């Protein structure tokens, strides 16, 4: 054997191996696939909520450097609010954004958000929901397998009817009003003198057209998009119920995220919330102008009358306070009182 040649070859092989190892150590690791979080909603993708989800998705991808990706499933493709919330609890769906009333089955405190004539201005709702009271409701969802990230807006609900202008409590008498299938709201409308008719939303237009009911109540963009102006003459700016959406993630999937990813999700949720609320309020203004242009006669219920109407509902609220827990409701009104006293 040629010993010098063998030694030379061995040194060359070792040098090559060392160089290759160094290259491998310094070569960037291949990027792992992003974690996919599906987010289901009942509204269309081009709705304000759908657009807000798309904004949220862009922020999440940016703040996590592409490690998380939100995939929107709109139009009820993954189920209705109730079934999607249950899917989050089961861990078979990652995210959804239901109406807050849907969550009253898990924590009755969410019902207080929908008490008639509770909030008079959007700023009041923002402060309460983004503050300690609202956070406490979100925290209550964790034992139920849900993590609440933010309150988004559905908006104030207003009344329409085909009989007469409604501007005061005496005008409520005898109006057959379609309501959501919510016992507290049905009881409230009946106490005020309406003939409340709970009905699924898809049936409302035909019921109005056929005069099976005289009126309905919904946010202004919904009234316009649903073409209720074609079968309703009178619009009352009643602002009788404030409606919120709650952005949720499954606790099971939340706990699988890193601390940095959780921070990124909360940051994106808050920023998209602010944008979504602005869009919602702009849309309400545009919808009101469009409904006037389409011939609806518009009246309103003055704030002082709204406060008097609320007092007429005391016995209804007492009934539901017992279900919710009076202390929780009292704290809500204490906070509202502070806001109104301070003039914020």
Description:
The protein is an alpha/beta fold and 344 residues long. The chain has a single domain (35-342), classed as D-Maltodextrin-Binding Protein, domain 2 (3-Layer(aba) Sandwich), CATH 3.40.190.170. The protein contains 13 helices and nine strands. It has helices at residues 3-26, 48-63, 81-90, 122-130, 132-139, 183-191, 204-209, 220-225, 251-254, 259-293, 303-312, 314-324, 326-342, and strands at 35-40, 68-73, 95-96, 146-161, 176-179, 195-198, 215-218, 234-250, 297-300. Strands 1, 2, 3, 4, 7, 8 and 9 form a seven-stranded mixed sheet that branches. It has a two-stranded parallel ribbon with strand order 5-6. α6 (183-191) links the parallel β5 and β6 (195-198). The longest helix is centred in the C-terminal third of the chain and has 35 residues, at 259-293. It is globular and about 65 Å long.
The residue-averaged pLDDT reads 89
The largest β sheet comes out as: 7 strands, mixed
Helix-and-strand structural type: alpha/beta
Strand content: 15-25%
| Count of DSSP strands | 9
The CATH fourth-level homologous superfamily: Bacterial extracellular solute-binding protein, family 7
Percentage of residues assigned to helices: 40-55%
Name of the level-1 CATH class: Alpha Beta
Number of domains: 1
Distance between the termini: 95 Å
User: Rg from C-alpha positions?
Assistant: 27 Å
| Helix-strand string | HEHEHEHHEEHEHEHEHHEHHH
User: Can you tell me the residue ranges where pLDDT is under 50 for at least 5 consecutive residues?
Assistant: 12-31
CATH architecture: 3-Layer(aba) Sandwich
Number of helices: 13
